[in-house]
Amino acid sequence: MDIKKNKVIAIVMQVFIVIVIFASVAYAKPVVLRVSGTSPIGYRGTQSLFDIKAEVEKATEGRVTFKVFPANQLGDASQVFTEVKRGTIEMALMFIPSQYDKIFEIGSLPYLADSYSQMEKLLGPGGYVYKLMDKALDKQGMKYLGTYADGFCGIGSTKLPDNPSDPTVSKGNLLCRIPAMSAYKYAAEGLGYKTTTIPWSDTFSAAQTGVCNAWLGASPQINYQVMGDVIKYYMPYNVVFDQSGYIINKKVWDSISEADRKIIEKAVNNEVRKSFASCEAEDVKYMKMLEEKGVKVIRFNDKEFKVMVAHVRGYAWPKLESTFGKEVFDGLKKEIE
After folding, report:
1. What is the CATH number of domain 2-336?
2. Using one digit for the tens of pLDDT, what is the confidence trace for 207-217?
3. CA distances from residue 43 to 34, 37, 47, 166 in whole angstroms, order as listed
C-alpha cells in the first residue's frame, strides 16, 4: 500500500509541477524589447529586424515582443551603445563604436579578408572575429547575438581621384571623410587619400558643400540610398567590410527564459545567414543602380586588387597591431593563411 501511495503522490507532484510551469509561462509578464536600428527603413538590415520581430513574437506567442526604431530614432551609435550597456535600450542592430574597447574595430580592419566567403568565416557564428567581439561585449554587460553583413565598402567622391587604381599614388586632389576610427584612417591613407573625421550625420552636407569631396564608410547600397544625389564617382575598393552587430543587454537577456532565448537566437541566426548569402549580390545590384543614377563606377581588375590588398595591409596592419595586440594579429594571420 505504501508503494502505491508513494507512486500516487509522485504522479500528483509531477502533474502539479507541470501545471506550475505552464501557469508561470502563461502569466509571466511579457518581455518588451526596444530595438534601435541605424539604417533607413528601406534598408535590408532594417527589414531583418522586422523579420526577427515577426518570427519571435509568433514563436513565443507574445511572451517576447519588439518595438523597432530604425534610422537612428533613438540616437547615434555612441548614445545607443551606452544606453544598451545601461539597459535603458534593450537591444540594437548597429555599427559598434570603439569608445569602450578598441577591439570593436577589429571587424573593420583594412582588408581583413579579400573575399565574401573568407569574411563570413571570420565574422559568422563561431568565427575568429565573432569570438573576439563576443568576449569584449560580455565585459561591457552585453550579449553578442550575431553579425549582419552589410557589404564591402568603397569610396564615393564628388571628383575623380588621381590614379584611383594605384594605392602608391597620392589622391591629393581629394579629402576623404572617415569615421573617428583608426582602422578607417589607415585604410584610406593606405589607398593614397588624405582624411578628415566627420560624423556620419554630417557627411552628406559636408560632401555637398565641399568640406570633403570623398567618403569611406558604407556599402554600395548606402552610397546609393543616402549619398547617391551628391557623389559622382564610386570606387569599389572593398577595403573595409561594413557590418552591424545584433547586441542585447546581458541582464535583459538573462531575464528571458532559456526556451525564448533559443527562439531569439534562431531568428537572429537566420538573418545573419541571409545577410552573408545576399551581400555580394546586393553590392553588385546597387553599383548598377548607382550607374543608372549617373554615378561612374570605377572597377578594378584582379591584378590591381591584389596590389591594393598587399599595399594597404603592409601600411595599415603594423600601425594597428599595437591597438589590437600582437596575439590578436597572430591569431588572425593563421585564420586567413
Report:
1. 3.40.190.170
2. 999 999 999 99
3. 19, 10, 6, 32
